[in-house]
Amino acid sequence: MSIIIKQIKDIKEELKKVRDEILLLNEEIVKLKQNNNHLSANKRINDHELIERLNRDTDRITVDLWVTNIDVLTEHLEKVFTYNLIEGIIYCIKSHIIKTKTPMPIAAFKEKKNKLFVITEIGGDKHWIIMDTAWLYKLLSKLAQKFTKTFIQLQPKLLSLTMEENISNQMKIMDTTKLLSSGISLIQRWLYTELL
To answer: For the chain, which has fewer Cβ within 10 Å, the N-terminal or C-terminal residue?
Structure first.
């Protein structure tokens, strides 16, 4: 009987050692995870690496075709009349995203604050590139032209408006200078947050 009691004590002692080792290993795992999170947070990913990663996904339509497919409707014009062209464009893009439910040809990464990437066609092949201000201006100008075209088409329906209201609405539609200044950065920030 004393041999069994001694063996039980030895087993208990071994179990305590194993438990202590498990606790130490758990502490090490927690420390490693914290270090890994710290390294990941501090790791700088360069634009080239992101573009290489994105170029694995070229099944999306190009950003030019995507903008061409956006419809500007009366409800979008109403946003322009109520607020301004920038708000109308944002509302129009939101509506298009909800309507199409296809992957956007625009990407953003939390590691690259307010930087956007777009898929476009270069030499007959699709490639992801950085969307700079000139690119964004080009796309927003296309949308602004669509707003103008829709506004002109709706002119007969807008005859009930007073001359003053009509001129005010025309000025809001034609005001692409706002698009050049504060509008581009506003839409860029909005797109960035929508994509994350």
So the answer is: N
